[in-house]
Input
Amino acid sequence: MKSITLDGVTLELLPPDPTSPRWIGQPEPLRQLQACWLDGDETDPPLTPRITGVPGTGKTTLAMACAALRGQPCWVQQCTSDTRPEDLVVTPVIGDGQKILYRASPLLTAAIEGGVCVLDEGNRMSEKAWASLAALLDHRRTVDSLTAGVRIQAHSRFRLAVTMNEDGSTFDLPDYIVSRLQPRIEIGFPPAQEEERI
Output
């Protein structure tokens, strides 16, 4: 497993998702996501869109396919109602010889490696979990790990998208988070002809 040392703390990094899905049909959502992730300069950070739609419309596939088109590795972090802030950043694990190791989350690994992360079903997370990511989602592009005692600056190539299902088992996101997750890219069911191709 790959590792990196920051401020004297060694973090184990996770491998990216090995799959490379293709995006079939509906060119507009892909075009919108590509525009969000254009390479600018340090004064113009990339956008972090929220991709919305009912389950099964391909929200995660869209983001992973866009990462592949950009030639970037992709990590997917599954969000749930019991996702804790430390789950999104660093988790301590017991290694050989009962030594504590620090394992970076998929999100943090993507931020360090300059890849793409998909926060899948992000509106299942609580406000407390979202609060830990506020600085990563704005111009600062940093995230703190209280567990490991380090602050990580995201790589300039790091890109993030958040998928959100539209159903009754989700949380309302606080306004200060919604304002950082712009724009909204909506995906509907494809027409029958495209569905056959898929």
